[in-house]
Amino acid sequence: MTKTNITCWVCGQKEFELFKNSDISSELSSMNFAITNFDYGKTGELNKCKNCGFIQCSDLDKVTGFYENLEDQGYEDSRKERKLQEKRLVKYLGKFKNKGKLLDIGAGSGIMVEAALEVGYDAVGIEPSKWLQQQAKKHNLPVFQGVFPHPEAKGPYEIITLVDVIEHVTNPAELLSLIRNALNNDGIFVLVTPDVSSIAARLLKFKWWHFRIAHIGYFNKKNLILLLNKSGFDIIKLSRPSWYFTLKYLGIRFLSFFPKFLQFQLPKFLDKIIVPVNLRDSILVVCKKVSE
Ligand SMILES: [Zn+2]
Known about the structure:
Elements: E1 16-20, E2 46-49, E3 55-56, H1 64-68, H2 73-77, H3 79-93, E4 101-105, H4 111-118, E5 122-127, H5 130-138, E6 143-145, E7 157-163, H6 172-181, E8 183-194, H7 199-204, E9 217-218, H8 221-230, E10 233-239, E11 243-246, H9 247-255, E12 274-277, E13 282-289
Parallel strand pairs: 4-5, 4-7, 5-6, 7-8
Antiparallel strand pairs: 1-2, 2-3, 3-9, 8-13, 10-13, 11-12
Helix pairs in contact: 3-4
């Protein structure tokens, strides 16, 4: 069955092919939207645009409430390795813009904001989850609860970052144009999202870790660039970011690909070792506004 009444969030065309059936059987809760949710491969019905190849889940259009009530202790527990990741990202941003007002949209518990403040940016964040915003507050980090645009986070900004967020939203074009409006004329916009056409995604098929209920939009390099250009951005640089994980986290992920009886308890010390991993299955884009 191919849906006929949906519009592609990227190119606006209406012709789709069924990409994956829904495997949501029970009622959804905030747990399904946790950043550290392990339910890989479980998604709503996904349809692929015949024109631009964008894959979207049109059935989950009211997800904000789930994010507001999200609690994710697993995310907080991995604060140390996430901090390394954000520090590295902030250092990378410095090549393009090394000072000024920075806004992180979907800031979680403020780890990126913290890394940016440490090197002198005037950084703030916005986060829908009340619980994650509370964690940021405990660390004295300026993260406002809510969604963008937010009355307390007034632009214009020199840098806006949107890391692993756009795959969660139902109207990515609108979000990008709002971001563009909040950016200084010489400001930069940094976006990170999974790449559904990456080798990892193609090899793992529906076992790829980014196929999850919370992800309702799946970009490839081409349609991501298309959407950015349509939204008034020029690409300055496109690359593949690394992520940092503990060996224990990676071990658990790795074992999850095997049947239950082959899974074993991992030694505790693996929790202490943090390694960078670059699976080349995410895209990092640095953009600037197209001049008017
Ligand atoms: Zn399309």
